[in-house]
Records
---
Amino acid sequence: MRVLVTGAKGMLASALLPCLEKEHEVVGVDLNDFDISSAGAVQKALRDVRPEFVYHLAAYTDVDGCEVNPQLASEVNILGTRNMAQSCAEVGAVLLYVSTDYVFDGTAERPYREDDPTHPLGVYGHSKLGGEQHVQSLLTRYFIARTSWLYGPRGKNFVATIIKAARERDELRVVNDQRGSPTYTHHLASKLAEMARFD
C-alpha cells in the first residue's frame, strides 16, 4: 500500500516510519516539502503521491506557543487538517489524524473515553478539536487517535525535561496538579502502523 506520513521529521513519525516501511511504500513529508496551510499545495502533493492511507502527524504542538500565536495554531492544526482531509477525500485515501487529550478539560476522575464530551481549555486543544471536526465532516473513512504526554528518543518531551533537570539540579520541583498517561512513541507507533490494515 502507498502511505503518506506528514510531519515526517517529528518525534512520533521517527518511530512510525520504520514500522510502516516493513509492509508499505512510504512517503514522508515535512515543512520543507509543502505548506499544509495551503490548500493548493496539499492538493498537488496528494495528487502526485496518490496515497491510499495518510498519517497526518504534522501539527503545531507547542502548547504555550499556541497561546502566544493562536493564528499559527489555527493555520496549521485547523486549516492544515481541513486541507489534508479534503485532499484525502479527493484521492480516496483513508486519513489517520493524530489528535490530543487536550480536547478535554482535564477534570474527569477517570480516564477519558473517545465518546466523552470535549471541552478544550486552551488554544492548542481548540485547534486540534477543530482539526478533528474537519476530518469527521469531510471524510467517511478516517481514524482519530488522541494521544497524551508523548515521549521518545527525539523531540522535546516531559521525560527528557525531567531527566535533564535531574542531571543539573540537586532537587526537582514539579507541579502536582496535573495527571496524564505518558505514551512512549515506539509503543504508539507500532499500534498506529497496524491501523493501515483496517482501511
---
Amino acid sequence: MEDVSDHSRKEQDALGSMEIPKAAYYGIHTARAMDNFPVSAKVVNPHLIHSMVMVKKAAALAHLKLKTYPAEIAQAIVESCDDVLTGSFKNQFTVDALQGGAGTSTNMNVNEVIANRAIELMGGVRGDYSLVHPLDHVNCCQSTNDVYPTALRMAAIGLVRQLSLTFASLQEALQEKEQEFAHVLKLGRTELMDALPMTAGQGFGAYAKAIARDRWRLYKVEERLREVNIGGTAIGTGINAPVKYTFYITDLLQDLTGYGLARSEYPMDLTQNMDVFVEVSGLLKAASVSLLKISNDLRLLASGPIGGFGEIELPAVQAGSSIMPGKINPVMAEMIGLVSMRVIANDTAVTMAAAGGQLELNAFMPLIADALLESLEILANAVRLFEERCVRGIRIRENRCRELVENSAVLATALVGHIGYERSAEVAKQASLEGKTVRKVLMEEHILSETQIDNILSLYQVTKPGIPGI
C-alpha cells in the first residue's frame, strides 16, 4: 500500500493536525478555509492578492531595516514576494472569495504561500516553519485587519485609474460622433413622443457630457482611497507594531506602488469603517446608470431597422439568431447594459456589507472586496469593448432621419416662435387630418415659403449643443 507521506505532509495548528499535499505552497490555515468555504467556486480576486503580497514585501523590507528578525529571513521573504508577484504561484491562492472571518483566511493563504516559497529559497522543505514562519515572520507586526483594508485600497486605486482612462476614451469617441453627425437633423423625443428637431450630433454630445462627469468623479475619488491603516494591527491601536515600523512600511508602500499613500492619523477609523468603499461603489453605480441609459437609447435608435426607429446603424459583430436569417442584434449595447446592471447590484452588496460592520471591525470585508473589485474590472473591460466594437462604428441613416422629421409634426413646434402657438397647432392638426406633411400645409396655405422653412430648421443644425441658433 502506498504511503500517504509520499504525497502529503502533516501540519499542526490550535485545532489539531491535517495532511497537506506535499506540492502545495499553502498550509493548514488555507486548507481549513478550503474545507469551510466551498461556496462560489470563485477564488479571491487576484488584484487583492497582488496588493496583499506587496504589503508583505514592504513589511519584510521594514523589518530588514529594523532588524526585527535575521536578515536572511527578511531577504528570503522579499525574494519570495517577488516570485509570487510574477503570477507563477497564482494556483496556490485557493480560498473562496465568499469567506467568513473578515479576510483572515485570505491573509493566511498569502502568509503561507510566501513562507513556504521563502523556506524553499533558503534550502528547506515546505512546511518546515522553523526556517520561516507564516505568522512570526511573514505576518510580523501585522493583523488581517490592517493588511486587508490597506491591500483593498491599493487594488482599488489601480483599477480606478484604469477605469478612469477607459471613460476618458469613451468620452472622446462620443465627442467624435458629436462632430461627425453635427449636420444631420433628426427627431428629438420626450416621453417617446415626437418633440422638437435636433441634430444627431447633439444627442451624442449629451452622452459625452454624462460620461465626462463620471470620468471626473472616478478620477477624484482616488484621493479618499490613499489613506491606509497599516500599522494599526487588530483594532487600530497599533499594538505589537512599533511606530518606526508603521512609518517605514507606509513609505515603502509608496515606493513600491507609486501611489500617494498616506498613514492614517486615526487607524481605528479605517479598520472599522468601510464608507470609502461605498463611495467608490456608488460612483460606479452612477457611471453604470449613465451607460445603461446610453445603451437603451442606442438600441432604440437602431431598432428595426424597418419596423423601428432605424435612425442609426450599430456595427454588426455577430449573427443575431439561430433561426432568423439575416437578423443582427445590438449585442455590444446589450453587453454594456447588463454589465451596468451587475455593477448596480454589486453596489447594493457593498452598501449592505459596509453597513453590517459591528464595533471595531467589519466582518464582511470579503464581500466588499469581491463585489467592488469585480465591478471595477468588468466595467473597465465592458466600457473598452463598447467603445471599440460599438460606439466608434456607429453610422447615421441620414435619409431616415430626414424622412421622420419631415413626416412628423415637430416642425409645427419649431414654428411657435415665428407664427405663434395657436397657428402652429392648427397647421399640425390640418397636416394630421389631411395626411400631409407640415411643410406641405405651410406652403399650400402660403404661410411660409420653402426657403423660410429651411431657414428655420437650419437654426437647429448647430455644432454645439444648447439653444437653437446660439
